[in-house]
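Bug #77: duplicate submission created two jobs. Keeping one. Sequence:
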Amino acid sequence: MSNRLFQGIVHQMKDAVNRVIGVIDENGTIIACSDLTRVGGGNDFFSIELGDSHEVFIRDGYTYKPFGVHVKPDYAVFVEGTDEPAAKYASVIAISLSGIKQYYDEKYDRNNFVKNIILDNVLPGDISLKARELHFNADISRVVFLISVISSNDVSAYDVIQNLFPDKNKDFVFNITETCLQSRCSPS
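Kept job's structure:
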């Protein structure tokens, strides 16, 4: 889904930048580009060059800016050219795409949806609409385990429980603090 999201933004920015711009995933595949004939093509050096850096780099006439929410970047923006404006375009586009991707992930996160229901942060009328939007089967019975940790130790109870239920599409494990329960805070 992020490919379509990125392609839409790249398409909107192509006239403003007036250069070939695009996005590459962690495998070196071009997933979005202002030159549609290049979508799906590859870049052999990308995964080697990317490493753990989020810094701008230049290669073969293009400027690259890695981005992503993890320590190791998930994607990189590329802009045609090796000059200072190309580096600035790449940085601005990377910031934009990173923010949009984060918003998209939060909006369509099933785990956050279930957490919001338990915390009573969703209006009852919105539950069925959001469930349909997330392709969430609302007609099946579910079980909720509320586990209270009395004292902390070296082993995180959250990690242990999460390992007991590894299927992220069917099982939802999240941490709720006392303050969250009392103030109905939004999920993090």
